Amino acid sequence: MVSGLQLETLMRKTSLLGAEAADVNEFRSLANDLVSRAVGWDFAVWSTVDPATFLFTSCNVLGIPAEPENERKFFDLEFAGDDVNLFTDLARNERPAESLHAATQGSPERSRRFRELMQPAGLGDELRAVFRDGDAAWGALVAGRSFGAKPFSESETAVVAKIGPVIAKGLRCCLLRAAAKAPHRLVDGPGMLLLAEDGRVLETTPEAERWMPLVGSSSDWQTAVRAVASRVRADACPVSLPLRTQSGQWIVLHGSSTASGSLAVIVEEARRNQLTMVISELYGLTPRERALLELVSQGRSTREISQVLKISPYTVQDHLKSVFDKLGVRSRRELVTLLFNGHYVERRRAGSTPGPYGWYLDD
Q: Which residue in 10, 50, 122, 164 is a FRET match for 330, CA 20 to 30 A apart?
């Protein structure tokens, strides 16, 4: 049982990892060590996801060997959409974390995933979580216990749910830093400023410099940067500050401490996370079809898509048929499988770096 004080300490330590970790892989490994000590599991799979499609962009398997065949079965079962406790469902739940034991009311054999994948591998209960920052999902977790171990308790699930937004921010912070260090790999990528402990600006990238005159006077810019720096030092954790430019555009300043004691401020355009234009342009999708594609990959029903896009269910079906024809598939399952296998799997296996907007930096 984790007390309120222990949870607060755990959340603060996890928050600091987002600023201190060298990259997203180190962040996931360190976060796994922290959270698993509090909750307890035998193995875990930590993933980053594309917030537009909710397809996995990178994956760390900790505690068990990574086996390609089990991975293929895992995703086949996930895309089938006929199981309990699916990630697409968790992503929309008020509490985006649940154990298989609880989801099946103590009868995990009701789960096809348990029968076909987990039980033959000698696995017991699993705890799943989606890491959201606001409405956007940036990562997911599968934590498991061996067969015969006690199931995850309600209080253990609650701990993972409460720490989820902190982990999402940490993942996003690591992805932003990676993009800021390689601006040539991402159009309109984020910029970065490095500040000394006394607030002096030590280094500014060209990508950050282009935002300065758009904000207003130099004093306006300096005030905003100082405000972020002060918050980071006062709260001892990463902070974000939205800032409106003179043209009405919004940018966001993300501040965090570094291992050397200096402070990094990442500047990015505030933008909606959306399915990469690479996929949409490749298949010649219209803006409406692209929006529908995102919603289908998120596991939305025809009724939900109709409500989001404000069109009739019949129109949804017409657009869906057009998307099927353009991509050469016959069902939603085939559609999502095509997207994942054709555009995510090979990049993920090749170790491509996920970008801060869901797509990869290597394209």
A: 50
Q: How many CB atoms lie within 10 A of CB 3?
A: 8
Structure tokens at 348: 């993920």
Quote the pTM value: 0.89
Residues 80 and 168 in one domain: yes
Question: Confidence class of residue 93 from pLDDT cuts 50, 70 and 90?
Answer: very high
Decide if 128 contacts 107 (C-beta within 8 A).
Answer: no
Distances (CA, A) of 89 to 93, 139, 267: 6, 14, 32
Q: What are phi and psi of 53, to 5 degrees?
A: -105, -15
> Is 284 part of a structural domain of the chain?
yes
Judge whether residue 363 has pLDDT over 60. Answer: no
Q: Which range marks the domain in which residue 255 is found?
A: 187-269
pLDDT, average across residues 88-95: 94
**Residue 314 pLDDT > 90:** yes
- Give residue 163's identity as a one-letter amino acid code: I
3-state SS string over 250-271? EEEEEEEECCCCCEEEEEEECC
Using 50, 70 and 90 to split pLDDT, how confident is the model at 86?
very high
Sign of dihedral through CA atoms 353, 358, 359, 361?
negative
Angle at 53 between CA 186 and CA 29, to 5 degrees: 70
CATH of the domain at 250: 3.30.450.20
Say what the pLDDT of residue 24 is: 94
pLDDT at 254: 92
Q: Where residue 325 sits, what CATH number does that domain have?
A: 1.10.10.10
299: tokens are 């596991």
Q: Are strands 56-62 and 43-49 parallel, antiparallel or unpaired?
A: antiparallel
137, 161, 179 - which closes a domain: 179
CATH of the domain at 117: 3.30.450.40
CA angle 216, 252, 290 (to 5 degrees): 120
- % the chain with pLDDT above 70: 96
Residue 357, in any domain of the structure: no
For CA atoms 238, 244, 245, 248, give the dihedral sign. positive
Percentage of residues in the chain having pLDDT higher than 90: 58
Please compute Rg for the chain using Cα positions: 21
